[in-house]
Structure formats: C-alpha cells, structure tokens
Write a structure and sequence with these properties.
The chain has 119 residues and is α/β, with parallel strands linked by helices. It has three helices and six strands; from the N terminus they run H-E-H-E-E-E-H-E-E. The chain has a single domain, classed as Vaccinia Virus protein VP39 (Rossmann fold).
C-alpha cells in the first residue's frame, strides 16, 4: 500500500522531499529509489554513509514543513514515541503523508499505518 501510494504521489510530482527515520542502515532509501522516488533524506542515530545521516530522531535538524513524505520504520523502538511522531509531523508539510511501520505479532512482521496530518 505504501509503495502504491508513493508511486501515485510521485507521478503527480507531489513529493519533492522525503524523510525516512528508523533503525535500518538505509534499506528504505534503496527501496524508495527503486520505486522511482528521488531526493530521499534518511536519518538515524548512527551514520551509515552514504545513505544515512546521523541525527537525533527526537530533535530533527530540519526546518518545519520541508518534506512531502515522512516514512518511519523505527517507531516501535523510539525512546519517546510521542516526541518522535511530533518531530516527523513538524517536518512534513500539511496535507502530505506520514507513514509509520509498527511491529506486529512477530518481529519480522510489519504493517504500515497511514496517518493523515490535520490542517
């Protein structure tokens, strides 16, 4: 579902900047790029050059409303989940998309939940 959503949004040129945050060494960057999405910014608490830049996920080093998509796979491991979501929402433009992947019953199981940003 997330891939289909990204593809439709990319085709309409709605996504000019993408932010991913989580606990993997850039897999999402590659997956998004393989899906045709460009200009992806990936942040994590540890550098994984060239795909991932180091940043505090609870205090992102970006201006307000600079991204058209916020995609996260590390929500279930966030120390302060509320602050983590607030930071992603702060950096994503109003009317854009934030997607959080949260753990399922099994560690390998993931599901995406789309959260609408309110105006």
């Amino acid at each position: 579902m997330v891939q289909a959503l990204l593809w439709r949004s990319s085709r309409k040129a709605l996504l000019t900047g993408k932010l991913t945050a989580g606990k993997q060494p850039g897999y999402e960057v590659v997956a998004l790029q393989d899906s045709g999405v460009v200009d992806v910014t990936r942040v994590e608490v540890i550098d994984f050059p060239p795909l991932v830049k180091r940043a505090d996920l609870h205090n992102l080093p970006f201006f307000d409303e600079v991204f058209d998509l916020g995609f996260n796979t590390g929500f279930d491991a966030a120390l302060f989940p509320k602050r983590f979501v607030e930071e992603i929402e702060r950096t994503v433009r109003r009317g854009s998309v934030t997607a959080l992947a949260v753990g399922g019953k099994k560690a390998a199981e993931r599901r995406a939940q789309i959260i609408e940003l309110e105006d």
